[in-house]
Amino acid sequence: MNSHKTTWVAGGVLALTVTLGQAGQAQAYELATSTDGALNVDLLAVHGWMNSRKNYDGREDGSSWREGFVKYGFSGHQGMGGAGTLYGGLNWVSSATWGDGDAGGNSVGTERSTTLEDAYLGWRSADLFPALGTDGVDVSLGRQVVQLGRGFIINDDGLNLGRGPADGALDRGGAYYLAARHAFDRTAVLRLGGEQGLHGAAAWLKSDNLAQAETELAAATLDYAGDAGLIGLTWVQGLDVNREWADDFLEQRDGMNVYSLRGEGDAGIENANFAFEYAWQNKDAGSETAWYAEAGYTFADTLWTPSLTYRYTRYSEDWDSLFTGLNSPALGTWFQGEVAANYAGPFARNTGIHHISLRASPRENLTLGALFFDFSTLKGRDTLNLDGRELDLYVEWAVTDHVVISPLLGLYKPSRDETEGGTQVGGNGTNVYAQLVLAAFF
Fold this sequence. Notes:
By secondary structure, the protein is mainly beta. The protein is about 5% helix and about 50% strand. The protein has helices spanning about 5-10, 15-25, 250, 340-345, and strands spanning about 30-35, 35-50, 65-80, 85-100, 110-125, 135-145, 185-190, 195-205, 215-225, 230-240, 255-265, 270-285, 285-300, 305-315, 350-365, 365-375, 390-400, 405-415, 430-440. The protein has an 18-stranded antiparallel beta barrel. A hairpin with a 2-residue loop joins strand 9 (about 215-225) and strand 10. The longest helix has 12 residues, at about 15-25. The model is unreliable at about 1-25 (pLDDT under 50).
């Protein structure tokens, strides 16, 4: 097993899918409703057609494949007559991959699985504690997605490898790129203080993902949100790993401490947005760092309301990205480059990334986007050289209130091929990658 790859290539989630998943829950079919509660039927179906002219796992020529999943179940909430609100969810996922398998060799095209995805129960305090604000106490337990901050360190357990690595031992059932599964297996989460002013969270998380060596960890955040933005601290401690599935790198998670300082907001500038995070890890092998700085602006009075964002991200040589990347609000957030992050590399380690994003909306239901990435390997000795550039062009079209279509074209140009210390097979020419994703939610 290529531990470098299986640790960092956490399945190329289409951010559209996450957005739809959230929207699907918000627009779920109401099976039963009352003044104090509701029981919903949740359904999200996603299918993707992918083609890559180049491969990154030693195979010649390219790959064509399909991926799909259906997420289905129930969610709901019930008021408790002034004693807060109970909420919960119970969902399953059925997923598959067909064809050649993906361009990175993480799936082979024969993956199929149906598993429990969400099974959680929570309680929100409503107005029981006025000093903490409405729902100022939120406690939840079970199998669920957990994100801390903007997800730079903890985003979800979305690594969805197929039968390619480790002779199939890490297989989670298909839909590698679409990343059908996001929930941690076992969680306990306490959130205090709502979203404004001083607030924070504490969490215990346990993964059942063999590619993550079933990592167990504790985490906490402390944030202050004001008119100009948010400033926050994050702490994560690794508690345990399954040593049967952990290589030397993943074993370092047991006892690891991660700290970060982060911020985001408009700094008082209308239509602007800024964000940063600086994180450092202390583990047995030494200290590592990762950070990013981002600035964006929306031209609110211009035709199509375009928004432009620039970000620089730097991951040190042996940075462990833990559970970052998937549950993000837009393409290119932490999985940077649809070809690079998902198939070719770099994989959130030993790299610096310049990123420019441009989005515009000709119509309310239509968004056009372009993503540019420039990747630089920081230390080339005894490592893959993953220098390269990528341009991704995409469309998000909400055909109806329940159906979205998203085509994407990616152009990826590495500096080196596999014979020169890179990963691309068949030369370092530009790879043309194309995909079409159809999503329906009710």
